[in-house]
TrEMBL record:
<keyword id="KW-0964">Secreted</keyword>
<keyword id="KW-0961">Cell wall biogenesis/degradation</keyword>
<keyword id="KW-1015">Disulfide bond</keyword>
<dbReference type="GO" id="GO:0047911">
    <property type="term" value="F:galacturan 1,4-alpha-galacturonidase activity"/>
</dbReference>
<feature type="active site">
    <location>
        <position position="257"/>
    </location>
</feature>
<dbReference type="InterPro" id="IPR011050">
    <property type="entry name" value="Pectin_lyase_fold/virulence"/>
</dbReference>
<protein>
    <recommendedName>
        <fullName>galacturonan 1,4-alpha-galacturonidase</fullName>
        <ecNumber>3.2.1.67</ecNumber>
    </recommendedName>
</protein>
<dbReference type="InterPro" id="IPR012334">
    <property type="entry name" value="Pectin_lyas_fold"/>
</dbReference>
<keyword id="KW-0326">Glycosidase</keyword>
<dbReference type="InterPro" id="IPR000743">
    <property type="entry name" value="Glyco_hydro_28"/>
</dbReference>
<dbReference type="GO" id="GO:0004650">
    <property type="term" value="F:polygalacturonase activity"/>
</dbReference>
<dbReference type="GO" id="GO:0071555">
    <property type="term" value="P:cell wall organization"/>
</dbReference>
<feature type="signal peptide">
    <location>
        <begin position="1"/>
        <end position="17"/>
    </location>
</feature>
<dbReference type="Pfam" id="PF00295">
    <property type="entry name" value="Glyco_hydro_28"/>
</dbReference>
<dbReference type="GO" id="GO:0005975">
    <property type="term" value="P:carbohydrate metabolic process"/>
</dbReference>
<keyword id="KW-0732">Signal</keyword>
<comment type="similarity">
    <text>Belongs to the glycosyl hydrolase 28 family.</text>
</comment>
Length: 422
């Protein structure tokens, strides 16, 4: 059984405001309403070796009420880091293709640095009341980065689209292809809706497309991600530190690492919060996990040379996964407080200082892969004092062998959990 996209995308004439509405679930915060646009159109010229200056000029000219247009069947190459965080009441109508140049040396030195996990982005879009739509394509020229990363894991690979400091807006009806790293990051933003996004693009040789998360939210609230199809090689969606009041619904994800809370607790001295998250109506296929919560242990450890951490504090609270189809995922559910650490004894000696509570898994169905058969999930906390109120209800996921499904559980109230723990 695959999910059904519940609502069509609604576009109104360009002189009116575009309407992208969270449905059926929505964040707690009241929805921001875009103001009507004027008839002013700024069309970006095509065919330039580097369109960054023309895009910047069009954005300034049409700011405060207009629409910047990227024409259909045209390619716009961006070879210079582009800061569009000043936008106000403006639309970007992307009907053509935006292609980021393959100058890895330039981007490694000049892409916008976002601090968290050494994330960088080709361009950053922010301000107030900004809508991005049009049916066009963002192309990150990923293969050159996959090849580069295979030789140097410390290269800073840019994110395809950075929404940074945006209050009120939407990204809808856009194709995203071949991102060097994460496809989307949302930073210091509130009240943004993503709708009808198509994400795909892998390697054409032996060098894999690594860390290609669909979305990562960071220090943001009232975000909705819905009605989209994702084929990638890492988290379909990941809620990074201080992500609150977020709805994810109507996604069809293939080949990912699941809908993930975290990773959290990576940086000592920092307090991470993920709270008030609702994940609804998801189809997850051929992933490592379906629903996932990942927390670093209470001491430093290294997942890889370019990703290490542990010892941070914080909490995960009020997270619901509801109506979740699992199709050949290794685990339907995974909760771990030992992320990045293979030494389980060390995790027990230095339990996570990040608490997990009020977690709800509801209405899970489907069949896992054969990798861990008959185990279909794991709920493992590093200490009984840091996990509480974790519930599961109407979970009918089965292993492919037809044996009775079992779960690996540790340091959790199994009676409260309600899963068949081995």
């Amino acid at each position: 059984m695959k999910l059904t996209i519940l609502t069509p995308l609604l576009f109104l004439p360009s002189i009116l405001a575009i309407t992208v509405t969270p449905y059926p679930k929505h964040p707690k915060k009241p929805r921001y309403t875009s103001t009507p646009r004027t008839s002013k159109i700024c069309t970006v010229p095509s065919g330039e070796a580097d369109s960054a200056a023309s895009i910047l000029a069009a954005a300034h000219s049409c700011n405060n009420g207009g629409t910047v247009v990227f024409s259909p069947n045209k390619t716009y190459t961006i070879g210079t880091a582009l800061d569009l965080t000043f936008l106000s009441h403006v639309d970007l109508d992307i009907q053509g293709t935006i292609l980021f140049s393959n100058d890895t040396d330039y981007w490694n030195a000049n892409a916008f640095y976002l601090t968290f996990q050494n994330a960088t982005t080709f361009w950053q879009i922010g301000g107030e009341d900004v809508n991005i739509y049009g049916g066009g394509t963002l192309n990150g020229n990923g293969q050159v980065w996959y090849d580069k990363y295979a030789k140097d894991i410390y290269i800073l690979r840019p994110i395809l689209l950075g929404i940074v400091g945006l209050t009120g807006g939407s990204v809808s009806n856009i194709n995203m292809r071949f991102s060097p790293q994460w496809f989307n990051i949302i930073v210091n933003s509130t009240d943004v809706v993503y709708d009808h996004i198509s994400i795909s693009g892998g390697t054409n040789n032996a060098n894999p497309a690594k860390n290609t998360d669909g979305w990562d939210t960071y220090r943001s609230s009232a975000i909705t991600i819905q009605n989209s199809v994702i084929n990638n090689g890492d988290d379909c969606v990941s809620f990074k530190p201080n992500s609150t009041d977020i709805v994810v619904q109507g996604l069809d994800c293939t080949g990912s690492h699941g809908i993930s809370v975290g990773s959290l607790g990576q940086y000592p001295g920092e307090y991470d919060i993920v709270e008030d998250i609702y994940v609804y109506n998801i189809s997850m296929t051929s992933a490592s996990d379906g629903a996932r919560i990942k927390v670093w242990p209470g001491t430093q450890s290294a997942l890889s040379g370019d990703l290490q951490g542990g010892g941070g504090r914080g909490h995960v609270k009020n997270v619901t996964y509801d109506t979740f189809g699992n199709h050949k995922n290794d685990y339907a559910i995974q909760v771990t407080q030992c992320y990045g650490q293979k030494n389980k004894t060390l995790c027990e000696l230095y339990p996570s200082e990040l608490t997990i509570s009020d977690i709800y898994f509801k209405n899970f169905y489907g069949t896992t892969s054969s990798k861990y058969d008959p185990t279909v999930g794991t709920v493992v906390c590093s200490s009984p004092t840091v996990c509480s109120k974790i519930y599961a209800e109407n979970i009918t996921v089965t292993p492919p062998s037809g044996k009775a499904a079992v779960y690996t559980c540790s340091n959790v109230n199994v009676t409260q959990l309600g899963l068949p723990c081995a």
